Input
Amino acid sequence: MALPSLHRCLQLSDENEQLVKKLKKLQIRNKELEENLGQVQGEAHLQQFLRDCVTSRDVQVQTETRLLDRGGHSQDLTLEGDSVRLLQMYNELQKRYIKEIKANQEQRLSFSTASTLSLLSSSLSLLLLCFFCEFLIYYVVIFQCQWPEVKGRADMGEKETSASVLKAMILADTHLLGEIKGHWLDKLRREWQMERSFQTALWFLQPDIVFVLGDVFDEGKWSSPQAWADDVRRFRKMFSHPVSTELVVLVGNHDIGFHYEMTTYKVNRFEKIFNFTSGKLITRKGTNFVLVNSVAMEGDGCAVCRAAEAKLVALSHRLNCSQQPPGHSSKRCGDVEKLPASAPILLQHYPLYRKSDAKCSGEDTAPPEEKNTLFKEKYDVLSREASQKLMWWFRPRLVLSGHTHSACEVLHAGKIPEISVPSFSWRNRNNPSFVMGSITPTDFSLQKCFLPYESRVFALYWAAGALLGILLLAHFQLLTPPFYFAQRLISKHKAA
Ligand SMILES: [Zn+2]
Output
């Protein structure tokens, strides 16, 4: 068989290529036709659907109708039949929408009124709480304090006994803040608390005499004359008292400085204002009180110390002579002016020497971590020597002191009781207190009167503040989403 010529081959190949191109064109055209067919079918379906859904069709009828907008305003429109139906549905929906909006607004208004009322009542409650915590609470707490009972002499009637009992209120370490260390808010609050406590106690308990056992001021040891004058003015205002009550103020290390910073100027400044001298005797209803400047009991022979000790020695002589039974008076007591024959009560700022507060018991003693700390002589407590001297000189029946800010009862030499009076200021304690003493020449009875716990007052404020915060959030609808969230959770739970 003869092979086709090369020319014939090329001709066939060209024809083949032409045929492939024609085939491709036909395929594209086929695709387009298929798509057109799909569209036509879709339109046919839609027309069928409209015929099924719309029961009457009157293409040529034109109707006048109104369009409601969301504000409830209407607008006249001219529309065809299907559109009229749709428009009617739309208007129905708009009416329902407007109704819902109105209902919602009414609900919001009533919610807002209720929320404003609850906010107002909460603010009023907060004001009442402030009034209670800053004023009434002192009455509530101090009303629970009673003067302790004390026995009179066997030959005395009940009336005579009550007339012969001296009602003494003893407090310590008020530490009125000064201009250097005291923050104005701290100062304002502490002084308000002490003033209210003191004035309420005066009004309710009506003591005959009040003793303040030193550290009246916090910065008396370094205050300028102006600052000192301001401190004194505030003290007089806070501790103002009727003439029927006597106020006796003793000196403490914060008033004139520790021994190394004590000067005659500072001692005189204090003594002039408070009419205090070391070795001063105050005799009321037959009871002798000896006031001691314990900062001057250093025993180093300094000028202030020598003068103080000399006065104490002279006073002890007078007191000891007065206690001698009639007819047994020694020659040395011949020219001594007699005092009531009652063993004195010693009042001072520093406590007599004790090792530590380890043996103290009661709810207002030093914190456990401080109880075993050994006391430093002449700093935390008087030196052993000075303590011994005071006990020898006076043989007191009771010693009352401050300085430690915590309570303690100590028995010295097995017979001389000493009471450490805690601080009267909330700056030093959560539960300040004062001591109430019913004192006769032969007996005494002491009772502590606690003031409000500051932690409890703060707890009340925190609780009230939190409640008011929640109400404020609710009032400004900042709590709405969590409420809805909770509501949804509840409804989901119920549905489940
Ligand atoms: Zn002190």
User: Anything to note?
Assistant: The pocket of zinc ion is lined by residues 215, 252-254, 349, 403 (CB under 6 Å).
